[in-house]
Design a protein that fits this description.
This protein is of the alpha+beta class and about 170 residues long. Helix content is about 40%, strand content about 30%. Strands 1, 2, 3, 4, 5 and 6 form a six-stranded antiparallel β-sheet that branches. The chain binds 2-acetamido-2-deoxy-beta-D-glucopyranose (NAG). 2-acetamido-2-deoxy-beta-D-glucopyranose binds near residues 78, 80 and 82.
Length: about 170
């Protein structure tokens, strides 16, 4: 049998070991959470400004009053918080939009004659939203029209950057 003193020492050692493991686990959870947020923040900012977030709705969703709902859902507005006069949602796969950047049809962008736009080689299904009421976001009301046309985008090395309109 162990003397009482020695037994107490072993229990104490175990308690310290348990404490150590708990501290380690807490530390690991903290590091995990830290990494999670670290990863999230820039990702969210990319989503907010990307052409996909602003213009691609595929497969097409079906809310009532399509344009009014979608403009709120995607936060479509002018930088000064006024309602956008026109906005287009594209109902094609994001990959199909990406492939416009390898199109052989290149032209000067309408309304911005100093930059080049790529034009899609096939027609895309889209919805045009045209402002019919309201001045300041989010009180904007839109008219909905379905259309098909060749889209015009600018591209960088990673893919499409800005939507510059369409040709019917
Ligand atoms: C807000 O921005 C839009 C687009 O740039 C412009 O047409 C409009 O005049 C601006 N409105 C105000 C109140 O500054």
């Amino acid at each position: 049998m162990l003397p009482v003193k020695a037994a107490a020492k072993i229990t104490g050692a175990n308690a310290i070991r348990v404490k150590g493991i708990l501290t380690l686990m807490t530390l690991m959870v903290l590091i995990f959470l830290l990494l999670l947020f670290w990863e999230r923040e820039p990702a969210e900012e990319i989503v907010v400004t990307s052409i996909e977030h602003l213009h691609v709705d595929y497969p097409k969703s079906n809310p009532i009053r399509y344009c009014n709902s979608m403009v709120l859902q995607r936060v479509i507005r002018e930088p000064n918080d006024t309602c956008k006069k026109k906005h287009v949602f594209i109902h094609e796969r994001p990959q199909k939009l990406n492939s416009v950047c390898i199109s052989h049809r290149k032209m000067v962008c309408p309304s911005q004659s100093t930059i080049f736009c790529f034009q899609s080689e096939t027609k895309f299904k889209m919805t045009l939203c045209q402002l019919i009421g309201g001045i300041t976001y989010p009180a904007c009301r839109y008219q909905v029209s379905a259309l098909e046309g060749y889209v015009l985008v600018t591209c960088d090395n990673l893919g499409p950057v800005h939507f510059h309109g369409y040709i019917e």
